[in-house]
Design goal:
It contains three helices and two strands. The chain is α+β, with helices and mostly antiparallel strands. Helix 3 (57-65) links the parallel strand 1 (48-53) and strand 2 (72-76).
């Protein structure tokens, strides 16, 4: 899922075709639960190239549009609370 860029329809179609076998063997809910479990266990780790403040959402979208970003560009909605 991407919040800053629309998916490329050609790539999305190719990915959907390659995943159909998985979805036939396992229900979509089972697959989503398995992926969530793997993520929570640290087996899946997203690559985030950088975080920008929410005020720079347009810059994040422009960066994603270049398709030269390795990983994701995250938006920081609020600063971390100070202890």
């Amino acid at each position: 899922m991407s919040l800053v860029a629309r998916p490329d329809p050609v790539r999305a179609s190719k990915n959907a075709d390659s995943r159909r076998g998985d979805l036939r063997q396992s229900g979509a809910e089972d697959l989503a639960r398995d992926r969530a479990t793997d993520f929570a266990a640290g087996k899946i780790q997203p690559t985030v190239s950088r975080f920008l403040p929410l005020s720079q959402a347009i810059a994040a979208k422009q960066q994603a549009a270049t398709k030269h970003t390795r990983g994701k560009v995250g938006l920081r909605i609020a600063d971390e609370p100070k202890s």
